[in-house]
Design goal:
Structural class: alpha/beta
Strand order of the largest sheet: 2-17-10-13-9-3-4-5
Bound molecules: ligand UGB
Helix content: 25-40%
Largest sheet: 8 strands, mixed
Strand content: 25-35%
Number of helices: 16
Distance between the termini: 85 Å
Shape: globular
Oligomer: single chain
Length: 598
């Protein structure tokens, strides 16, 4: 009370709201008026931020928290009344006619797309000290995740424009959602690399705010232990992206510019863009309002399962059921074994890889109703079975893939399944945890993430007729992986099956110990026999035919231990480094027609 005269009218309103929502404890240890007034002001600044960044304000956050905490205390099943079953979706096979048609359609549509990267997470499971988008996706070329994403979007932009009949000037927009944990380092990464070739105006960063932590089942806000004038905060989850996009006004800008699709993706999947054209083609052809990308999922793998939920009252929805909820849900609905593999060796529920394609117009309509608020959940760690106190403060969380939960039954919600070797290889687990992953399940580590890129590129080249040798099994950081030839190319060389097929003719062979790096757009593999390392760079209007036999000592993978602190962290977490012994390197800096024939 005695501090009231210090406050502005807005601060008085906030103080009243806090008192009315049972937060008197926040003021209990405040100093006399005139003492620590700056800190008191900073407290209200923080409360104002927490209030304005949450749809419905802080009072609404506290109300929802009380409801969810009460549900959690009585152990209420969030899927009460719903029975899960396996939904039907579009299942694609890489390289068949259907796939090629969808890719073709996807490339055409790409000029009407905007991309949104959620990169606010610190990646606690990985334990890497930097931001995850700054990690190399693979170390043969050292291409970073963010670089790969941007170069892929630019390649898609060019390919889409080339297909258009008009004078296409499309610049595909990219939004990156950051948080206080990642914002400054993301800007620095972009600026120090000239936005990896994108125009700076194409990229927009939206920073998510954290939400208030809760101390007990009454949703009393947790006082920061280091400063009694601050409330403890934690991340609210990737679901924030919808409210942020809506409140920023950017969706309307995109709509007015004639865009039709918004594609969401995560921070570390080096294969993702191999799946984008096909999936976008499915969205356009099937007119999906929501299309989730999925891969076959091993039971208990830490990715959500796409599930059809049918309520006793007849309602149905196709939605991601998060990995920790799928097993209990199945057990509670007549499947005593829970989440298990079926005869295919995979769970019958496709794995959500959190790549979502939303049609912009219905998305804006929905967000106009909801403000972008996403159904939340709470996951308190209780001290004991009485469930009256927590081990540490908790908070509400939300996930971007829960967006369809508020949609009417008329919404067209579908999904697209692709092979995991083509579409999904995230970097989420640290070496120790990855080494403990049950045999046969994916490691989702920096090791497997890189190795998967070589495997995918090798398999793609096999599909277009190159004879690529079989892999060998090697162990890095305690993880057994198949090592294929280290084949990489820039996205502009080939993003789609048809484009890659066009670049390969004749009969070429690549041995297992080989490395091949293609950086030019118009490089054509004709009759190449590669046993060693070959690196080709060429400007866009240089056409290079590659023929003949290349043989040298090549590049090898050298084991390193993740505990070896003398090696940089981004290499250590892979368990290997590339030993560049001997290579043939060819650069074509001028336009013209060339033949590389050693
Ligand atoms: N992220 C944010 O931007 N902000 C946040 O507050 C939190 C995260 P994780 P998670 O595809 O493999 C998801 O931690 O949440 C970003 C799906 O829920 O890597 O455990 C973060 O930077 C799950 O269904 O994953 O699991 C990152 O880019 C499954 O699909 C992204 O959000 C799984 O991903 C994901 O964060 C998967």
């Amino acid at each position: 009370q005695h501090n009231l005269h210090l406050l502005s009218p807005q601060q008085i309103e906030l103080a009243k709201m806090l008192l009315e929502t049972g937060q008197t404890h926040l003021f209990e240890h405040w100093a006399e008026p005139g003492v620590e007034d700056d800190e008191k002001k900073a407290f209200f600044d923080q409360v104002a931020r927490l209030d304005s960044s949450y749809p419905g304000g802080l009072a609404s956050y506290i109300k929802t928290a009380r409801e969810l905490l009460a549900d959690s205390k009585v152990g209420k099943n969030p899927f009460d009344g719903f029975t899960p079953s396996v939904p039907k979706g579009e299942v694609l096979t890489y390289g068949d006619d259907n796939f090629i048609n969808f890719e073709d359609m996807g490339v055409k549509e790409a000029r009407k797309a905007a991309f949104v990267l959620v990169a606010g997470g610190l990646g606690e499971r990985l334990g890497y000290n930097g931001i995850k988008v700054a990690l190399p996706a693979e170390t043969t070329t050292g291409t970073l995740f963010l670089q790969n994403y941007i170069e892929s979007i630019l390649a898609l932009q060019d390919a889409s424009c080339r297909l258009a009949q008009d004078d296409c000037q499309t610049k595909i927009p990219l939004v990156i959602m950051t948080s206080d944990d990642t914002h400054a380092r993301t800007i620095e990464l972009l600026e120090s690399n000239s936005y990896f070739g994108m125009e700076p105006t194409q990229v927009k960063l939206l920073k998510q705010e954290k939400v208030a932590c809760l101390d007990d089942n009454d949703a009393r806000l947790a006082v920061d232990l280091r400063n009694k004038y601050r409330i403890q905060t934690k991340p609210h989850g990737h679901g924030d992206v919808h409210a942020l996009l809506f409140s920023s006004g950017i969706l309307k800008v995109w709509h007015d510019a004639g865009l039709r699709w918004v594609l969401f993706f995560q921070d570390t999947n080096g294969l993702l863009f191999k799946a984008i054209p096909g999936a976008l083609g499915v969205s356009a052809t099937r007119q999906y309002h929501v299309n989730s990308l999925a891969v076959p999922r091993k039971a208990k793998e830490a990715i959500g399962g796409i599930t059809k939920l049918t309520h006793a009252d007849g309602r149905t929805m196709v939605i991601n059921v998060e990995y920790n909820q799928l097993d209990p849900l199945l057990r509670a609905t007549g499947n005593p074994d829970g989440d298990v593999n079926c005869e295919t060796g995979y769970s019958p529920f496709p794995g959500n890889i959190n790549q979502l394609i939303l049609e912009l117009s219905p998305y804006i309509d929905e967000l106009t109703k909801t403000g972008g608020a996403i159904k939340e959940f709470v996951n308190p760690k209780y001290k004991d079975a009485s469930k009256t106190s927590f081990k540490s403060s908790t908070r509400l969380e939300c996930m971007m893939q829960d967006y369809p939960k508020t949609l009417p039954p008329s919404a067209r919600v579908g999904f697209t399944v692709m092979d995991a070797w083509l579409a999904y290889a995230p970097v989420k687990n640290n070496p120790e945890d990855a080494a403990k992953v049950p045999k046969g399940n994916p490691y989702h580590s920096a090791t497997s993430g890189e190795i998967a890129i070589y495997r995918s590129n090798s398999l793609i080249l096999r599909k277009v007729g190159v004879q690529v040798a079989d892999p060998v099994v090697q162990v890095f950081n305690g993880q057994e992986v198949e090592v294929w030839p280290r084949i990489t190319w820039k996205p502009k060389w080939g993003l789609t099956f048809a484009e890659i097929k066009r670049k390969v003719c004749g009969s070429s062979t690549i041995s297992q110990r080989s490395t091949m790096v293609i950086k030019g757009r118009n490089v054509f593999l004709e009759d190449l026999s590669l046993d060693g390392a070959l690196l080709i760079d060429a400007v866009d209007d240089a056409e290079v035919k590659v023929q003949g036999s290349v043989q040298n000592k090549g590049w090898t993978l050298e084991n390193i231990d993740y505990k070896d602190a003398s090696v940089p962290e981004e290499l250590r977490i892979r368990g290997f480094k590339i030993n560049k012994i001997e290579q043939l390197e060819k650069n074509y800096p001028e336009s013209g027609n060339f033949t590389l024939k050693p």
